[in-house]
Amino acid sequence: MGLKGKGWMRLDNAALIFPAVQKRSWVNTFRVSATLTDIVNPALLQQAVEDLMPRFPSYYQRMGTGFFWYFLEDVRQAPQVRPEYAFPLTHMGIREQRRCCFRVLYHEKRVAVEFFHVLTDGHGGLIYLKNLLARYLFLKEGLKIPPEAEIEDITAEPRDTELKDAFQRCSGPFAMSRQEADAYRLKGSLDTSGRMHVISGLISTKTLKEAATAENTTVTGFLAALLMDTIIEIQACHVKKKKWRPVKITVPVNLRRVFQTETLRNFSLVLNPGVDPRFKQYSVSELCREYNYQMALELTPEKMAARIAANVSPQQKKCIRLVPLFLKNIIMRGIYRRVGEKKGCINLSNLGAISLPRAMEDHVSRFEMMIGVQLSYPNNCSVASYGGTTCINFIRNIHETELERRFFTRLVERGIPVHIESSEEEREEA
Questions:
Q1: CB neighbours of residue 373 within 10 Å
Q2: What is d(CA 267, CA 256) in angstroms, rounded to the nearest whole number?
Q3: Which of 42, 162, 211, 276 has its C-alpha lying 20 to 30 A from 69's C-alpha?
Q4: Structural domain boundaries enclosing 64
Q5: What separation in angstroms does the CA of 37 have from each of 85, 108, 228, 309?
Q6: Contact yes or no for 417/203 (Cβ under 8 A)
Q7: Are residues 105 and 206 in the same domain?
Q8: Mind listing the pLDDT tens digit for each residue in 272-299?
């Protein structure tokens, strides 16, 4: 059953916007996947999906529509696993959402789970995938995997804290203004087929950490700085200087660490560290310092609570609660167009270093994450590290590969070897 046995749940605060702004051609989805050392057994994978259903009810939900709000409702049956049938993050239409808001796919040695963002965020999706793999390996190999590294005992009852909307609990007494400068927008020629193109760069995690440490920043900070540097160059090539805009990277922040909560639902906010290239010509080292300063200034519990309050406060007003859903959708679409995606150039979502119980390590060779392109972003970037390798995935719905080419060239120029893979099955060493 769903939250408190009701069989349904309210959408969490972050999820409210996604069904309101989705279109026939766009749904906010993301994907987490793992490559195993053996070919996937579909029947056992299906059994694992079904076995997890009682322990993780907040994932097994379908979209419902009420008069005032969308809601999530328990599915009666677990979704059927499917072979990969197209490209990553194929459009998830409303009909599919009304059956289940996530799908499980397999291809040779790979297991992938694709989520409609109303269910959870990247970290919550990773927790589900890790537990799915643990159950699958138990069924296939008889592995006894201890409840550690976010692996849960599936015979236990779900904890109330896993099912709660943590935004409501952690909202501050005062709301922070959302005002900030609009950022430069990347552009390209749209692939009208609807296909998502993926280019991946595989890098030694040790080498990447050493490069970040040399710049006195984190891996995310180093990659964000390189992305800023890349996009500054692209803007300079395509836009006259008098029309330049700030270059900012949208970085999701996992609030579970900030507020010490274990919710499995959405609990992240984004920050937009960046610079205005009209002020001066920035080196990568200076961009790393700017990232460090801006993130340290904004990433405090007090400011995050104020940012949460800016989103939660309108939802709590009686005059808003009583507005019919179709009018709420119009309002939320207008807000999203004005605010939602104008403040950054591209998302950079880093799952960080992924750990598994020792019993699982020899059976999993790789983790990946992909966030679909946004409504007005033609590109997105996601990062995951496991087993000494960092996988940087760029996804796009345009034909041009300028961003990826310039970005990976910067890594190589800094002495960081990159193995390139693409969704078009091309392979090369950079």
A1: 20
A2: 7
A3: 162
A4: 3-152+164-170
A5: 21, 10, 36, 45
A6: yes
A7: no
A8: 999 999 999 999 999 999 999 999 999 9
For 429: left if phi > 0, alpha if psi spans -120 to 50, otherwise beta; the answer is: beta
Structure tokens at 36: 């195993």
Contact 124, 150 (CB under 8 A): no
Q: Note whether residue 333 is domain-resident.
A: no
Closest of 116, 23, 21, 68 to residue 335, by C-alpha? 21
In contact, 349 and 253? CB cutoff 8 Å: no
* 26 found inside a domain: yes
Largest interatomic CA distance in the chain: 64
Overall pTM surpassing 0.85 (yes/no): yes
Domain membership of residue 178 (yes or no) is no
Backbone φ and ψ for 209, nearest 5 degrees, come out as -65, -40
Q: What is the CATH number of the domain that holds 103?
A: 3.30.559.10
Please report, rounded to a whole number, the percentage of residues in the chain having pLDDT higher than 70.
Answer: 96
- Tell me what the mean pLDDT of segment 323-345 comes to: 82
Number of domains in the chain: 2
Q: Please report which confidence band the pLDDT of residue 178 belongs to, taking 50, 70 and 90 as the band edges.
A: confident
Query: Residues 123, 65: contact at Cβ < 8 Å?
Result: no
Averaged pLDDT, 78-86: 94
